[in-house]
Sequence to fold (493 residues):
Amino acid sequence: MNTQGTQGTQGTQGTQGTQGTQGTEGTEGTEGTEGTEGTEGTEEFRLPRSRMANERLHALIPGGAHTYAKGDDQYPEDLAPVISHGRGAHVWDIDGNRYVEYGSGLRSVSLGHAHPRVTEAVRRELDRGSNFVRPSVVELEAAERFLATVPTAEMVKFAKNGSDATTAAVRLARAATGRPRVAVCADHPFFSVDDWFIGTTPMSAGVPAATNELTLAFPYGDLAATEELLTRYRDEVACLILEPATHTEPSPGSRLRSSRGDPTPGYLAGLRELADRYGCVLIFDEMITGFRWSEAGAQGLYGVVPDLSTFGKALGNGFAVSALAGRRDLMERGGLRHSGDRVFLLSTTHGAETHSLAAAMAVLTTYTEEGVTARLHALGERLAAGVRAAAADMGVGDHIVVRGRASNLVFATLDENRQPSQRYRTLFLRRLLAGGVLAPSFVVSSALDDADIDHTVEVVAQACAVYRKALDAADPTPWLGGRPVKPVFRRFA
Fold:
């Protein structure tokens, strides 16, 4: 699901002096300069309105944001822009600065902000009512459209967020197998806000130890280690849950084919065989891989069919919709056409709001009719090549490292010992922001154009020049402007 806590860049942009009328485009949309460097090497780039708004956010909202990955602790000190609005591949902050944005909506906005086909579909339904006492015909149409796009699934049920979908999959697996334990992939950073997963993270406060003991972990790409786990806990593991492809740093036991994060040939098929042999349910979390890998998800690309799979993010292009899909005999346990114990499966008040399902249908249609997945890959390949060349030209190619599938690029910021560094990440983010690039990752949307990519590469080159200076000094402190950015998952604030 979410790539919370993974290394990435977050550009900093614009000078505070180019403030236009808030909420309008054009005059406020000028991209700022980097500012002048002081005696300590820090930029005179400020976001005064965003800084005040962040203080107000913290006073009213725990963490200052509704998603931890959006928190201002993920950005350089006092350089966390508060967004006014967005269109296409660009967003504007309340200080009047325009940014080229990557990882839009935590990877959910893959078509760009306010995509016309999506917003028009939503407007049509808003005028017709959004939530009724009985199912809407839109629910039927959305299910048919989804299953036509992801033909490996036989039934689908919609919800509003990924956590509900993955937790429902786990509950369904436990009910079907009668087993208590869940095995999660240790190399994938997020599956759910619910106790069965959050208890395994450093932010486990409030989760009973007895709950934590029921969740096990296996390394991505290592069939032998997974079989050892299933043997040790024979007849206790209800399911294996993982993203079918990865984008994060592998654990020591992982065997990845390349920095693209593709599975080793035969790995997913091997997991399928292990799940069948040990009688557990195979669950693919396709929150990220769904549609970005192929219109039919990673399962369609790699040709391995899970028992259950979960989708979200790109499915709604920013509108709240997720999906649990899978085998009919499993899914029907949450229905009315079986004789066994009933599973309480995704019964939510707002799960089938008509406008969100209309957004999902518009997204699915756009992906299939316009070849969006192919465009995402082409844009990502162009961006990755440019960033790698810029880093190499500045002598930091071994320190700013782009990884992942072209449609889902992340990057690592490494120190002089080539170890991941939050301090060097902070330096990099400050320079990007000052150049008009807002990039917690390099995950592209189809709204980007060649000019956006060229601008990004130019700003990256400028950032790499400063990065080189910090490496030569073996100390990025003069370029940080304050405390370093922090990982999302940590025990203390």
